[in-house]
């Protein structure tokens, strides 16, 4: 399979991986936030009862967890795709 063909064939896998990463990282973040803060829900940027540092900290943790989860799932998906097709989807 050509490099361009592998990239095209991988797109549905990549889309599914992105959705899965969002779901998994959301669940992980909810648990992490609950343990860190003792609250069920993280502060939203527009909730006035939270201080700026709490809102920014929550966003930073959530972003880092999402990025790490997405990279992990993308890499595992690419490895699985390569085993199925013999082509690496990113090259």
Automatic annotation (TrEMBL):
Pfam families documented for this protein: DUF4235
Full protein name: Integral membrane protein
InterPro entries: DUF4235
Top-level taxon: Bacteria
Origin species: Geodermatophilus obscurus
């Amino acid at each position: 399979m050509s490099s361009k063909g592998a990239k095209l064939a991988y797109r549905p896998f990549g889309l599914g991986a992105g959705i899965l990463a969002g779901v998994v990282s959301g669940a992980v973040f909810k648990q992490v936030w609950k343990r860190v803060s003792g609250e069920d829900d993280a502060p939203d940027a527009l909730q006035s009862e939270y201080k700026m540092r709490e809102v920014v900290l929550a966003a930073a943790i959530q972003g880092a967890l999402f990025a790490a989860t997405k990279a992990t799932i993308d890499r595992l998906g690419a490895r699985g795709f390569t085993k199925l097709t013999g082509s690496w989807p990113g090259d």
